[in-house]
Amino acid sequence: MADVCNIIFTNFFNDTILPLIAYASITTAIIIALSFMVGRAISNPKLTLWAKTESIQIVVSLFTIFFLITIINTLCSINMNEVAGIFDITTSAPTEHVDVYDAASTYLEEAAIYSHNALIATRYHLQAYTVLGYLNAFICDFSTGSIGWGCLFGYSGENQQPLGGYGAKVAALNIFFNSSIISYFSALNFLFILIFVYKGFVFLFLPLGVFLRAMPYMRSFGSLLITMAICFLVVYPVMLSIFYLMGDVLVNREGDYLSDPSMNYNEKVFPDEAESGAAGSSTGAAFAGADYIYEKYFPGEDRYIEAISFAAYAFIAAVFMPSVAMLATIASISYIARLYGEEIDLSRITRMI
Amino acid sequence: MKRTMLFLLIFLFMVPMAFAAWQNIALLAFGISAGLLAVIYMVGFGFGLNEMQMMAKEELVQLIVFGLLLATLVGGDSILNSISTNEGLAQGSATMQDAATLIIDDIIDDSGEIMDQISSYDLQISREASKSSQCSIMGMGYTVSGCGGYTVLAAPLSIAGNIVGFSIGELSAMKRLIQITKEFALNLLLPLGIVLRTVKFTRGAGGLLIALGVALYIMLPAGIIFNEMMAATFLDDDDEFDAELVYGPAAPTANIAECNAGDAASLTTTGNEDNAKEAYRGLRSDIRKYIYTALVRATLGPVISLLLVAASIKAITSLAGAEIDISAISRFV
Fold this sequence. Notes:
The structure holds two protein chains of two kinds.
Chain A: H1 7-41, H2 45-77, H3 80-86, H4 100-134, E1 137-140, E2 143-144, E3 147-148, E4 154-160, H5 167-198, H6 205-213, H7 219-233, H8 235-245, H9 247-250, H10 278-288, H11 290-297, H12 304-340, H13 347-350
Antiparallel strand pairs in A: 1-4, 2-3
Chain B: H1 2-14, H2 21-47, H3 50-85, H4 87-90, H5 96-129, E1 132-137, E2 140-144, H6 154-198, H7 203-237, H8 272-320, H9 327-330
Antiparallel strand pairs in B: 1-2
């Protein structure tokens, strides 16, 4: 269960956040009341008007927080598997209760695993091509079969790299290796933001927002804090949970690696010297030649195009879709901030994506 | 007036029983939102809060828009489907998404063949370029590499592999986007987008989902199909073009002759240098054939489609009520 919906979080919220909100509200109310009294005492209508306006705003802020708590409880009680059933979508675990926050974190975890698998597949191909490219063969002159008579009394022959020509494939795969790394790191980045939200730090914005929103010249900043809390607690997880429903296609829940599951991308194509079979592999490589090593890396077929496609799919799942969720969140912050105060220019934040 | 409003409210809560599952939710959301707005307006009216009354009126307008969008979606499903299945766009397939997927698969296959040919040339060139001859007897000897002329041919092949590989990846990503929208645009993204648009807090998210659903469902496959139609029309109509040029992967014709590593310099006879030049001319001729597939079909086409999608998302999110800065998405193109 996501941190936001469990008992520990509820205790944290009741023991820490609610008292802070209460302190902030009372402090603000006292300041407003004092301002009102001073305004009446010195017959300053501006001060009394300000106090009346801000007293309403503090009620609005508190109502917003109450509304936010209600929405969070609602999102904790929604079962995304039931939502999937409403839209005729099947999920991997249809009988489990998966709330919105669980679904959001599950999607990002799946995206990180998926992009990591793409990274493995791409890196394996790059490793194979690099090892094969560095193979050197010395072909003695005057050879009979694999015996070169020209090397009996010295060295006479030709040096060459029989499998040295993978520059084109390496160039192509390098782009997607970098892309897979970006996909993996992006998925983790978005997941860390989500965990950050779930751990409750964003709730600390609420008491600050309640207080600052009622202070002169700080309305926009206070509104921004409250709006950020709302959007990161509601909009961001909701968008990610929608992508969770699309997970069968986005992160290919049914499949694992590529079309040939027997190709398990084992790192140890040639085992270490301490392991059994190491001597046999090295000897085989020395005598059987480059094709023997090629078969070790690619027992069936070289699937570099599938590896490239895999990396591209990982980019969609781990970068494009979470970025859409973040864009929607940032747009919502802009939109809702207008409701609570002044418009906030968030164009600089979108450049972070 | 009051009786009319009462009948309308009852109708709104009764109507969900006539529809399928997600429409139930949508109409329930509509009814609940109308109820909440009524409460907000009453509180504002009771306490004399003009701001609350104005907000309630503004949200009522948005609620009416939601109702219109819902009606449009229920009726517009058939419009989107008729666009999708239009014979001119579907190109013989069941839907335009299927047609676009077939085109993408075809381009990926052609690009894969081109990549295999480039790799084959790369292997031959690099093997010849790596050769060196060595002779050593009793500690005295020499090493000579007469195949330096082949070395320069590897770099352009790397660049070619880079471009073709990138286009394969781009096409694969588009294929995945089409697959997603085909499965989820009409039955998940659009309905959820409309429902989320009802609530003030999630209006931006709802608008973006609607924009994503429509743009990816229609504009992305349309861009692919139009680019393919445009290129095919150009090739059909241009009679004056060089008939010998082949537009796509063809049987390799470049001859990569074997290099004699010990032959360091041949001033009077045909040697390694001439073989390398001959290989270069053959490669130059072959690679020209790949440009149409690699650059026009596999690179330009996807870029145009993705730009269409980005522009559509921007326009539709503005209409849907919350304009979103999609420059971040455009950077992915």
